[in-house]
């Protein structure tokens, strides 16, 4: 588990094909690795990776074909900047929100505009993820815990304060760039609980008013 509070910006310094998979070497810059061991998890731009080898200035991690296909790690080359966060401990502060490091899909930045000292971003999410994104809810973008300002169909808006710009790779975002998205874990599990067995039936249509009524959360006569 992670919190979405980035601890350092690192760089991909080597990318070695391993059959259909890839082994990445990440330089961790200012990230303290003194309490990290082989087998521990580190979020790399929101993707939970397992450390397979530790170095003085970073670590090696294996990236599966599945992860390469469904995250922007598959597009990253040597020199790419990445957000880094070590896994939470029981004594860690939860400054952001609960993040699993299991990316749900890839979004695209469609607009960036200045707003005082902050920056506003508009990101288009894959259609199947849009229902999990709510105004004033939480979302994880490239490993960064952020609050959703507004939602319009499949697009959502974020306000990025100066500190977040300086401490994350968001500073380099430009329209057209692709980003890892992880929706709020609570939204995913709530939908599963509401649907129950209906989720696995062919032709299931997701959470509907009748499904909410069956769960005692809506009335059919209103």
Brief overview:
The chain is about 15% helix and about 40% strand. The chain has four helices and twelve strands, in the order E-E-E-E-E-H-E-E-E-E-E-E-H-E-H-H. Strands 1-2-5-4-3-6 form a six-stranded antiparallel beta barrel. The protein has a six-stranded antiparallel β-barrel with strand order 7-8-11-10-9-12.
Taken as a percent bin, the fraction of beta residues is 35-45%
What ranges have pLDDT less than 50 throughout 5 or more consecutive residues? none
Count the DSSP helices.
Answer: 4
Broad structural category: mainly beta
Please write the string of helix (H) and strand (E) elements. Answer: EEEEEHEEEEEEHEHH
The amount of helix comes to 10-25%
- In CATH, what is the class of one domain? Mainly Beta
**Fold-level CATH name of one domain:** Elongation Factor Tu (Ef-tu), domain 3
Largest sheet features: 6 strands, antiparallel, barrel
Mean pLDDT: 89
Radius of gyration: 19 Å
Known CATH architecture of one domain: Beta Barrel
Please identify the oligomeric state.
Answer: single chain
